[in-house]
Amino acid sequence: MNEFFDPDWGSATLGVRAAEPRTGNREHSASISMTSSYVFESAAQAAAVFAGSEPGYIYSRFTNPTTEAFEKRLAAMEGGESCVATASGMAAVLTLCLSLLRQGDHVVTSSGLFGSTINLFNNVLSRFGIEVSYVAQGDLAGWEQAVRPSTRLLFAETPTNPLVELVDIAALADIAHRHGALLCVDNCFLTPVLQQPLKLGADLVIHSATKYIDGQGRCVGGAIVGDAQRVGKDVFGFMRTAGPCLSPFNAWVFLKGLETLAARMKAHCENAHGLAEWLSEQPTVKRVFYPGLHTHPQHALAQRQQKGYGAVVAFEVEGGREAAWKVIDATRLISITANLGDTRTTITHPASTTHGRISAEARAHAGIGEGLLRVAVGLEDLRDLTADLGRGLRL
After folding, report:
1. Residue 99 clears pLDDT 80, i.e. is over it
2. Cα separation, 377 vs 311, whole angstroms
3. Are residues 253 and 266 in the same domain?
4. Closest residue by Cα to residue 269 from 309, 301, 313
5. Between the N and C ends of the chain, which has fewer C-beta atoms within 10 Å?
6. Do 329 and 298 share a domain, yes or no?
7. CATH number, residue 151
């Protein structure tokens, strides 16, 4: 592997050149190491590699050159020391929590958290004696008031799914550190191209690589980025034992995805901004949620801590669920799916899909109404997207 890279390179350069997994064959494009295990020259060498006194690969559950290349490249882009790749974004959240938390610990997070993460916190972590408190996303005083002596982790998505609400990462990091807790930021929506939480004071970064890192809706995976101790040893140790690992093939897809991430995110942002402005002018749209709009209450914060506004636009239509479903069913171009981060634009009704398994009370508390739609804007021509949505908005 070509280990050389300059950490001062820009995101686009790091995405292409950091940790190139080149073998003795000197291939220019990354190859895939599709193997479950590795052989040794002698019993002594095997013992040394297993003991850690000699470097080498052992078993692809926790050591694989393709997966390692993806981990090193993503860590370089995020400005972290270590990265551990996982089988999915949710596996990354679970791995992080079970690596760093124990019975009696407490987590503070936002009520606007992704529905699956809420379910994991409420229905899985609670079995292990880990408690979770929910606060309003942008209410820094609420975050601080929720902290207890047992609080070990503040967990934030910024922007949130689906209302693209932000939180001041630097201020939240100060709160966490004053109370001896860690801050983890889910950076799935913006990627390291548009936001680098570690540089703003966060301790850990979570990714669903399934989304923009892949970029074409092909593979499922996740990642945790942070320092050499917590991620490089503690999280890696959990991975080695428990095995929620990323497959080498998916790691290769994500590695190639990082090469085009900067270019894709720029195009995504341009399309999303244009669509948000167009939606704001439609008479049947009550409200548009997009940090790039001056009407967004956290527009100034987005300008301060982000390099772009992202590709997710949410909007609320008059008429509740019936009207929202009409907009979805009238589309001919946009894909009806809850996934996002694709070259293809997708649309979903959060109240009945991504957040359908949480209580109506929890949805209301998070601001997810029946008339809300979420569009993850892809790379098609903007005029075709507005025409497709306009059909349903006129019904």
Report:
1. yes
2. 5
3. no
4. 309
5. C
6. yes
7. 3.40.640.10
At 1 the pLDDT is 65
As for how many domains the chain has, the answer is: 2
pLDDT tens per residue across span 76-88: 999 999 999 999 9
Residue 2 has pLDDT above 70, yes or no: no
Contacts of 251 (CB under 8 A, 6+ apart): 64, 66, 67, 69, 70, 85, 221
Residues 172 and 278 in one domain: no
Distances (CA, A) of 291 to 14, 172, 266, 312: 27, 19, 15, 9
Within a domain: 271: yes
Q: Report whether pLDDT(392) > 90.
A: yes
Q: Which of 107-116, 127-136, 163-172, 288-297 has the lowest mean pLDDT?
A: 107-116
- Identify whether residues 198 and 309 lie together within a single domain: no
CA-based radius of gyration for the chain:
21
Per-residue b or e along 136-145, where b marks 16 or more CB atoms closer than 10 Å to that residue's CB: bbbebebbbe
Domain membership of residue 3 (yes or no) is no
Instruction: Among 198, 226, 257, identify where a domain stops.
Output: 257
Residues 155 and 41 in one domain: yes
Range of the domain at 367: 262-393
CA count, 13 A, side-chain hemisphere, 53: 6
Residues 267 and 210 in one domain: no
Tokens 């002594």 belong to 44
Q: Provide the token pair at 21.
A: 């997994």
Encode pLDDT of 196-232 as tens digits. 999 999 999 999 999 999 999 999 999 999 999 999 9
Judged by DSSP in three states, 10 sits in coil
Given 224, 241, 257, the domain boundary residue is 257
Q: What is the pTM of this model?
A: 0.94
Q: What is the pLDDT of residues 317-371, one digit of tens each?
A: 999 999 999 999 999 999 999 999 999 999 999 999 988 877 888 788 778 899 9
**Which residues in 161-179 are b (16+ Cβ under 10 Å) and which e?**
bbbbbbbbbebbbebbeee
- Inside any domain, residue 2: no
C-alpha span between 311 and 327 (Å, rounded):
19
